Amino acid sequence: MASMGKQLHESWSSRFTFIMAAVGAAVGLGNFWRFPYETGKNGGGAFVFVYVICVLAVAIPLVVSELFIGRRAGLSAIGSTRKVALDEGKSKLWQIIGWNGMVVGLLILSFYSVIAGWVISYIPKMALGQLNNAGADGVAAAFDGLLANPGLMIITHTLFIAVTVLIVWRGLHKGIEVAVNILMPAFFALLIFMAIYACIIGDFGQAVAFLFQPDFSKITPGVIVSALGQAFFSVGVGIGIMITYGAYLGKDTNIAHSAVIIGVADTFVAIAAGLLIFPIVFGFGLEPNQGPGLLFVTLPIAFAQMPGGQIIGTLFFSLAFVAAITSSISMLEIFTSWAEEHGGLARHRGAILGGVIAWSIGLLTVFSFTSLKDFYLLGMIPKFATMHPFDLIDYISGKIVLPISGLLVALFTGWAISKKTILDELKMSDLTYQVWRILVRYVSPVAIVLILLFETGILRL
């Protein structure tokens, strides 16, 4: 049961492995389409400038908070928040932070796996040259054909979930650590190589100007809210991943330093992805603000035209797959960690159960593009009138539950936990503590409430 958590859970073999795992959890498909899309939609360098500030002022302090909760208690996200709260003489209801994280983790994994399945489909497409000389219409038709083929999507969705379950099943040392120690260095090497290649064959000058020459007149309230949202979601706070991974962390690891490394590394990947994508987009006269279509339509059009595009396209989707799998294992680990503590489930049974739940919910996403595309579960509510199941799950999990979890983390660690406990666990200097406390107590809650108000339409720009 929960009180046995310290005997049930393993510890990271090294600080490097923990950093690789945490960065892998933060880095995902969103770095490859959501960051470039938001950058393209929100003024380029102006958005990047605000985004970096938001990572430093909002995301990293919350990573510190979540790692603190996990390491302090050494349990699952639910068990850790409950134990830390009770140890401080606070209500056990604070464990809602962990429950929110676990539920939203499974919801996000459910549709994330389907999209990762699209990535799997595109690896052989690129490797076999099936999109060579297809032209813009042919590439778009290929993607539309994939969305209209639920059988193929179920196969790739199942394959991705199975790989995720297998890694988590094998445990922290033989599964997650082996995966991240191999995949993350390969990921960074491949990302840097491809970014350099893209800058050589694409329009490097326009891409650099677009990313790093901010026009401050373009910084509007809308840009600030978008940058806040991207920073919050990109680093992976609010979902319980960092609480779960923090529980496996040794007392000799400096949490504040590790949080900075995680935030900076994730930002580096996002910008490197921009340097990979934007030179190609600008060099081949394409649009930079295409959302998910950037991965599956816009870039394949460019790959079909560029020298060595067949190889580069294959490497790109392989890179995206690595980013997807290192994130998915962290989402499944939240549930598996909890399952080890409750119900007497062995790790492999917990991993399988979590995988089956995510896989089953994922079928709603698969059929959202075919038989359920005109099914609006909450159609009687104007906000949800045109949302099919995939849109609804994405919106509720990412735009509502996730920010609420982050807000609760900020309130819990900023207001409910004593200074003595924080300093005892984090070993911060008094100045560092004061800065962190201001950011978590005041800046983060205000930022997250703004995200919630604008995303729900209560406030409009």
Written description of the protein model:
It is a single chain. The protein has helices spanning 5-8, 15-26, 29-41, 45-73, 77-87, 96-127, 135-147, 150-169, 171-201, 204-212, 221-235, 241-246, 255-283, 293-305, 309-341, 347-367, 389-416, 419-426, 430-455. The protein is mostly helical and 461 residues long. The chain has a single domain (2-455), classed as Hydantoin permease, CATH 1.10.4160. α8 packs antiparallel against α16 and α11 (221-235) crosses α19 (430-455). The radius of gyration is 21 Å and the shape is globular. Mean pLDDT is 91; it is low at 1-6.
Radius of gyration: 21 Å
Shape verdict: globular
Largest sheet: none
CATH architecture: Orthogonal Bundle
For the record, the CATH class is Mainly Alpha
Task: Find the structural class using helix and strand composition.
Answer: mainly alpha
Q: Give the low-confidence spans.
A: 1-6
Number of strands: 0
Beta content = under 5%
Give the CATH topology.
Hydantoin permease
Order of helices and strands: HHHHHHHHHHHHHHHHHHH
- The residue fraction in helices comes out at over 70%
> Structurally, how many domains make up the residues?
1
Overall mean pLDDT: 91
N-end to C-end Cα span: 48 Å
The number of helical segments is 19
